[in-house]
Amino acid sequence: MSEPKGRGAAWAEQQAPVHPVLEVTDLVTHYPVRRGLTQAITRQPRRRVHAVDGITFTLARGEMMALVGESGCGKTSTVQTILGMVKATSGAVRLDGVETTGMSQRQMRPLRRAAQMIYQDPYESLDPRFRVRQTIEEPMLVHGIGGSRSERKPLIAAALEQAGLTPAEAYLERYPHELSGGQRQRVAIAASLVLSPALLLADEPVSMLDVSVRAGVLSLLDSLRRTESMAILMITHDLSTAAHFADTIAVMYLGRIVEQGTARDVVGNPQHPYTKALLSVVPKRDPRHRAKPQILAGETPNPVSVPTGCRFHPRCPIAAEGCRETDPVLRITAGASLGGSGASLSSASTATHLTACHLA
Ligand SMILES: Nc1ncnc2c1ncn2[C@@H]1O[C@H](COP(=O)(O)OP(=O)(O)O)[C@@H](O)[C@H]1O
Ligand SMILES: [Mg+2]
C-alpha cells in the first residue's frame, strides 16, 4: 500500500541518506574566567576554560554513540554547544546538513524539535506542578503539534507507552513526586518522543537512577534507535555501559577526543593509554581476566591551563620526551578495521578506529 507522499516527506526522503543526523567539526567552546580585582589591576591576561577544544565527529541515523570521559572533561559543554545553549567559540555544528552555528535562538527553534535533550536528573527536568499529561502536552503546544486537545490525547498516550509506561492511563494524571526515578526519566523521554526527534542527546541519563532500573532505561534508548532510527549521543562516565549499548565510542580527555571507533574496537583493542586506564577499572565478570587497576598519576587536569604537547602527558604512564612538545592529532590506528565491525553505519560515521597518541 503506497500513500501519496507530501512535499515534506519527499524532501525528507531526498535528504535522509545524504547527511549524517549530526556533524560536529572542530568544535571549540571556551568559557571566560573572571579575573579578580588584583588580576585586573595588574593587567594579567584573561584566562579561559578550555571546556571543548576542537572535536570532530558525526552521528548517523540509528547510531548510538557514547561520549565517555571523567567529570569535567567537557561532555556536557559539548551537548550544550550542539544545541546552541552555549555559544561555540569556533567550529561548526550541522543538524541534518543544516549549519546551526551562529543561528539565533529563533532561527534554531524549528531545529530544536529535531534534537532533544535528556537530562541527568529527571527530578530537575520535570516541572513538579505539572501532571504527566501536561508535561508531555507542553512541548506539543510549543511546537504546534496536534491541533486540539482531543487530537493530542492519543499522541500523549502513545508516547508514554512507547517510553514503556503502560497502560498510559495509569500515569496521565500523576505528578512527578508520585513516580519513581526510573518512571520520571521515562516521562522525560516520552516528552521528547512526542516531537519525533531525529537526534537524542542524553547527558548521563541513568547516573542519578537506582542501579536496578538503569538497564531498563538504557534498553529503552537502545530500542528507540533501532525501531525509530533515532541517532543517540549518550554521555556517560561509565565505559562498561558504553561498551554494552553503544555502536561507537568517543573517549574524551580535557576537551579533546583522544580515541574513537566502534565499541568493539575501542573496548576490545584500546590504543590510547587513557582508554586503557579507564578500562582497567571496569569490573570484569571473570576474575581471571581482571587486570591490575591502573591509577593515573599526576594531578587531575586543569582546563584553564592545558599542558603543552599531548595534554595527557603529565598523567601518562608511557609518556616520552616528545610528548611534552607535540600535540598529537587523531589518526587512523595502525591495523585498524575501517568501517568497524560491520554495523550498518553510513560511510560518514565514527566507525573508523582513531587514536591521538604519538606512541599508540
Ligand atoms: N558555564 C560555565 N562557565 C565556566 N566554566 C564552565 C561552565 N560550564 C562548565 N565549565 C567548566 O568547563 C569544564 C567542562 O565542564 P563540563 O562540560 O560540565 O564537563 P563534564 O560534563 O564532562 O563533566 C569544567 O572545567 C567546568 O568547570
Ligand atoms: Mg556533565
Feature tags:
360 residues, alpha/beta, Rossmann fold, 12 strands, globular, binds adenosine-5'-diphosphate
Walk me through the structure:
The chain is of the alpha/beta class and 360 residues long. It has a domain at 46-63 and 240-360: 3-Layer(aba) Sandwich (Rossmann fold). The chain has 13 helices and twelve strands. The strands form two sheets. An eight-stranded mixed sheet has the order 6-7-8-3-9-10-12-11, sandwiched between helices. The chain has a four-stranded antiparallel sheet with strand order 2-1-4-5. Strand 7, helix 10 and strand 8 (231-236) form a beta-alpha-beta unit. Helix 6 (132-142) runs parallel beside helix 9 (181-193). The longest helix has 17 residues, at 211-227. The radius of gyration is 22 Å and the shape is globular. Residues 1-11 and 339-348 have low confidence and may be disordered. The structure holds adenosine-5'-diphosphate and magnesium ion (MG). The site of magnesium ion has 2 residues, from helix 3. Adenosine-5'-diphosphate (ADP) is lined by residues 31, 49, 51, 69, 71-77, 303.
